[in-house]
């Protein structure tokens, strides 16, 4: 099992930036693909971005493409989500997850991920 801890959330004005981090421990999370999801109040959890184990391959939701960047540092067993040009509709709890069955698959469905963090709140004011 992999333990994941997110950090870096907070309150920011529209147009601002935040950088989320997700530190992993336990099974060797650096060997697997990982992703970020978010869940706004009253809505289902939705895919944001995913990255392969090497960091060479990434995929983004259309709603964040060009504004968010996912990256990873396998030496630190940590992934990041740089969020720029934030909008009020980006307000949500952000979760990181690991796909412990695959190294290259960039999954976009919640059911395809095996381990989840507790989440970090991001609030964007207008």
Description:
By secondary structure, the chain is an all-beta fold. Helices cover 0% and strands 50% of the residues. The chain has strands at residues 2-7, 10-13, 18-26, 33-39, 46-51, 58-60, 68-73, 78-83, 92-99, 115-116, 120-125.
In short:
By secondary structure, the chain is mainly β. The chain has strands at residues 2-7, 10-13, 18-26, 33-39, 46-51, 58-60, 68-73, 78-83, 92-99, 115-116, 120-125.
Query: What is the CA-CA span between the terminal residues?
Result: 39 Å
Total E-strand runs: 11
State the helix count: 0
| Major β-sheet annotation | 7 strands, mixed
SSE diagram, text form:
Elements: E1 2-7, E2 10-13, E3 18-26, E4 33-39, E5 46-51, E6 58-60, E7 68-73, E8 78-83, E9 92-99, E10 115-116, E11 120-125
Parallel strand pairs: 2-11
Antiparallel strand pairs: 1-3, 3-8, 4-5, 4-9, 5-6, 7-8, 9-10, 9-11
Descriptors for this entry?
126 residues, mainly beta, seven-stranded mixed β-sheet, four-stranded antiparallel β-sheet, 0% helix, 50% strand, globular
